[in-house]
Queue: 4 jobs
Job 1
Amino acid sequence: MFFIDQRKKISNNNPGFPPLEVISKWAEKFDLYEDLLRSIFGVLENDDHFRPQVEPKDFLKYISVLKSVEKDEFLYSVTLIRQYTNASVVNFNIDWEPEEQPSKNRFYPHSFWELWLGDHYDCRINDGRGTDGHYSHNFIVTPPLPDDVSGMEFIFREYETPLKRNSTGIECIMHFD
């Protein structure tokens, strides 16, 4: 356990994945299998994935927010927030004209999104679905958001792969007045 804690502190809680050449040297130096070390560092790199996940319970109400941002050929919107006793669920939508192929075909075969609300909130994508011209994603946020989100900033970031890898550089920032 000391090794894991030490690795997290040294890497500022962003352990990354050592280059394969380094793993080969460590395997030889410490008489370990390379595949074992790759597996260990793969799990350490994704420790966020193993954190306990809150499931919303005891629905309270809908909060209508109706905020949108148009960027390039896309309309990004947050239409509502569902409030529960232990969490909030933020509905994030992406719309585009399906007959016109977007200049950046970012949605093929799929893209992955994260929501950032600051260090105080834990946000994880719960589900997503779409059709031609529309995608909808739900993010579970804990602790629950306030009923009035005025003054808050919602930052949505797109990735090519899950687990926040390979950022596309696309970011949608929504300021709630």
Job 2
Amino acid sequence: MQRLRQWIQLIFVVLSNGYWGFPFKGTLYQGPLKVLCSPGLNCYSCPAATTYCPIGSLQQLLLGVRMSLAGGQVFIGTYVVGCIGLLGTLFGRLICGWACPFGLIQEWLHRIPSPKSRIPQWLGWGRYLVLVLLVVILPLAWIDEFDMGLPWFCKFLCPAGTLEAGLPMLLLDGDLRGSVGWLFANKLVLLLLMLTASVFSSRPFCRTLCPLGAFYGLFNRISLIRLKFDADACTKCGACHQVCPVEIRADEAPNSGACIRCLRCTGACRFGALGLDVAGYGLRISPPITADQPTHQEAGL
């Protein structure tokens, strides 16, 4: 299952960044696919990007609200909100574990042999703070003389944008290098910190700062695809705790907003207590108990 997940992650990376004509044309892709919403965090300004970023588009919608209202117009942005709402309703944070390019990069870095450390659970509230403050409130409230807001998350924080758009564009456009200032330097430092932290801790950006993960996590309990937990089959052996990349207890909160639905816990559970619920249909992913595995009674329960 994990090998399949890795292949699907790679496929989404290629599909989301499939425009390889940019080194020759020196421009961003503006073809028909650019109207499609990328399920994961993938910068619109990446030279290879063929789709738009859901968080970037949501910010663009919100930062122009005050100006449109001043002009007597109201733009609700049903397409942008509808796309990410539909993705959240269908998949929840499964997208984070199966389709996000920046999540895949963090996973690769975490494989580097090194001492590993846990991330305190309370830091997970940071992603909700980023979503509410940088993505929603500040673009609406902090406006310039033209009644326009700023894309705070994209401009000041997003490490995926720095990696996928900022650095490639500097390499391609020599004129941009002379305009690099403290803002890009700060974002570059943040990117390096996140990449370094990924070596020692599992998915630090996803778990502490990603607003898209926070948004999708709101749908985890109601999404079409969810984890299914059978309390009667659970032996409390803790196997699911040991393999979880976001350090949650699947037997206690199977559809926590932090769960990225990587399904490692379902493969680790030997008693069939964890599975996948797809539109009400249960799918068992864990292998069956073999003769050399303990039964419920042998496990002491």
Job 3
Amino acid sequence: MTTTAPPVRSTRRRWTPRRVLVVIVITIAALLALASFVSPLIYTLIGSVTPSRDADEQGGFPSFDNYARVFESGFPRFFLNSLIITVITVIATLVLSAMVAYPLSFFRFRTRGLIEALFILGLMIPYQVVLLPLFLTYAKTDLLNTYWSVIVPMVAFGMPFSVFLLLRFFRELEEGVIEAAVIDGASAGRIFWTIILPLSRNVLITIAILRAIFAWNEYLFAYTFISSRNNLTLVLGLNDFIGAEGLVNWGPMFSAITFSVLPALLAYILLNKYMIAGLADGATKE
């Protein structure tokens, strides 16, 4: 006697008119959102290679005269200032945040909860409330018009979120790895540098990208604390292309904006997968 097996139902979903309509609507919405993000970049890029009206008639599209005018100005200096501030800010934030999150995660002491609460409280403090106290402090300590006047507050305001993300990740690490290192005689410092940090690569890269983008595009602290032309950042340097009565020289302005956007954009494109992985690792629940 033979038995017939029941027919296997297909796992594919049928394309009903309602489902087709939903897919079309979602696709159109996604394309519109993409266009809203990409179109300003394309417009800026095209504007940067468009010859100005007073240019020689022999020069056609695309023209790189606007980029030449940007390099002839003080823009390279502004680029270097922003790069220095960004690199120092990112390194300082990573090192200090990791050194704070490590003892809060693996050591037991009375004030641990209070310290953690203070860092979480730092997420709720707006930047604007510290501008005047910092300005008066910098004026008394001769820190105005220096890199440190911008770096210090950016590191301070970047640490709460960085510490929070690292705490969530450190507390998900396997305790057996740490216990094995302790049994082998590894010191707390060696465990931190040779075990904890390598395992935290994705989270550290995520923090580095977020803080680098913030530091690169920072305007409020730089505008408040820096007035010396030699120390102006890239964002402040864009004012050089605004003439009298608010008239803007759009060709060089678009070229300068292109240079200011490309580093952050390239860093995000190249390290995007690490950033997503780091946010996923740091958001796991205990």
Job 4
Amino acid sequence: MKNNIIYSISFFAIIIALNSCNQKEHSKTITTDPILSEVEIELENLTNVWYPKSIDTVNGGFWSDFNYKWDKEGAQNKMIVSQARHIWTTSVLAEHYKDKKYEKIAKHGYHFLRDKMWDSINGGFHTLVGFVGDGLKVISKNKSTYGNAFAIYGLATYYKVSDDTAALDLAKKTFSWIEEHAHDSIYKGYFDVLQQDGSWMLDITEDKGYDNFKRKDWKDQNSSIHLLECLSALYEVWPNDLVRERLEELLILIRDTITTEKGYLTLHLHRDWSPVTFKDSSAIYQKQNFGLDHVSFGHDVETAFLMLEASHILGRKKDTLTELKAKQMVDHGIAKGWDNKEGGFYDGGFYYTQDTCTVVKEAKVWWTEAEGLNSLLLMSKLYPNNPEYYNLFQKQWQYIKKNMIDHKYHGWYAEGMDTDSQADKKVKAQIWKVNYHNIRSLINVTQMLKGEFILTKELH
């Protein structure tokens, strides 16, 4: 009860300030570029609909579940990934807007991770806590490297804007925990699915309700690319030799091994990095296992950006190999997963033959469209002599405005209205849907259009 009172009192002033500020708009850049002005307005709308509404002043951290009208509705379980993403997002907003109130929100989230989600017995962050009986209890059965990576991402970025060394210390502690428990010293890279004490699950044969039990023996692109992302953030504020070594290790693994020669990511891989594939299986079995083996266009265009970001943070000058691989990944997404009629990237495809990638999941998911917007503009800046990238960027923004943004209640639909006509009546937030993809994209796009983005600044 004491902690609940503290949370409520400490955020009373913040909520008043936020509600007051939400009646005003942040200052806009005077510009003749209509897309920049529109993106800045949407960034404000998106920010204001999430904060302070999502701040949980009773239990700490952030509320997880909202319906399409932004009423709290659902279990309100708290997952390390979404809680940490809120910390990252509000830290970046604090930097972008030069506004301390977002730093205070990030601090609130950091305290929740520190006090409620860290495993004081085994180390590492729990994956999921939920309301059981009279309070929050751990309800996840095992730990996730992916989840702990996002904790580092949020904590390191919060330290960058706050200079709170205790938050950086917790990020370092999390890195050490991942390094000790998840890193494969023989084949390199990291396992994602771990037991509660951090031990590997390779010898576990009985599924006792474990999370992601089916892929316990595998490595995967998703945890790898987000480890790359989090270690980029950590190395930027803590240039430690081992962090650098692991960041370079992941960059090379993702670029040269996980990414195929065609320019898309292998989703799952065995310990020795040989692909997990169902290409030689029956059509029924392929369909049943589509989630484990397909072309994820969203991850491909996102990874193109994350590799270039990591290369920059590492100070790799004239990293032509990484730049060309990033371009190939975006080009493959455009060639195989882009909707030429309406715009937008489809969710997933499959190579049923060596040369033909068939779109299997036509859904256009919010995070894929956000990452596509970011990477298309990035490619247009890196390759200004190819006007196709900017043309597609313009079309992507028009697609998002028409099909993804809720102009009545604000926020983004989980899926585009063109592929799900009922998307406007579905939830706006849940533990896997927060705001880090689209807010990051809008901030990056704003900075690119102003000539201020770190990866392209020298081009202006």
